[in-house]
TrEMBL record:
Main location: membrane
Record's protein name: Biopolymer transport protein ExbB
Superkingdom per UniProt: Bacteria
Example GO BP: protein import
Organism per entry: Vibrio atlanticus
Length: 233
């Protein structure tokens, strides 16, 4: 309670709005970082290594792999498990299922980022409002002074005005920067998920795609009877 009273003395009427914005920013960023930790831990190479151990025509091996990776934490494993579980369906239906799953994860990974952006816009405005109120208090003190005006007459109101502006900016900076960085991370994760799901979908059709060191993408049938190579720059 003493800390709250101290903050109210320092920030005036804007104490609670700034505290709420600060608490929301901290909670959203902490929750998003927790999601980052849950999503990382496996790459496309690990998925390809798993697929290379089985045949795309062996339903039992595919179902066993889908079952073994379905309980793992990274999103990449969950997406691949979902797609492998639908291996018996047509390619078009698998693409529709993957699209629905990706859309759901897109909403999940971007959850709270718009609120962070909104806080980043509102916090400086709250600080600016506190600045105006502080200046009003300062001029009230000046008007009530009958003698000469001293710095002490201006200090309280002007100090309140500067403190609320600084507090608003201190909240806005992590909210905006955190929202942008987390958005970039979410887009990167979604791109990796989309690429890997496309790879698995093509693999289920009997084609193995390999990327050469020069950056060309080569596709070859998984079966021993090779019918040709497909190269795309």
């Amino acid at each position: 309670m003493q800390q709250i009273s101290y903050l109210q003395d320092q920030l005036g009427l804007m104490t609670w709005p700034l505290l709420i914005c600060s608490a929301l920013t901290a909670m959203i960023i902490a929750e998003r970082i927790f999601q980052v930790m849950l999503s990382i831990g496996v790459g496309k190479r690990a998925i390809r290594h798993e697929l290379n151990q089985i045949s795309p025509t062996n339903s039992k091996e595919i179902e066993a792999l889908a079952q073994s990776i379905s309980g793992k934490r990274p999103l990449l494993y969950k997406g691949v498990s979902m797609l492998l579980a639908h291996h018996s369906f047509s390619k078009g239906l698998r693409e529709d299922a993957a699209g629905i799953w990706l859309q759901e994860k897109r909403h999940q990974l971007h959850a709270g980022l718009r609120l962070l952006g909104l806080i980043g816009v509102i916090s400086p405005l709250i600080g600016l409002l506190g600045t105006v109120l502080g200046l009003i208090e300062m001029f009230k003190g000046v008007a009530a002074t009958t003698g000469s005006i001293t710095p002490n007459d201006l200090a309280d109101g002007l100090g309140l005005a500067m403190r609320t502006t600084a507090a608003g900016l201190m909240i806005a900076l992590p909210a905006i920067s955190g929202g942008q960085l987390l958005g970039l991370w979410a887009d990167r994760v979604l791109a990796q998920l989309e690429h890997t799901l496309n790879y698995v979908n093509v693999w289920l059709e009997g084609m193995s795609i390999q990327t050469s060191q020069s950056g060309d993408t080569q596709g070859t049938p998984v079966s021993k009877a090779s019918i040709g190579d497909v190269s795309q720059a």
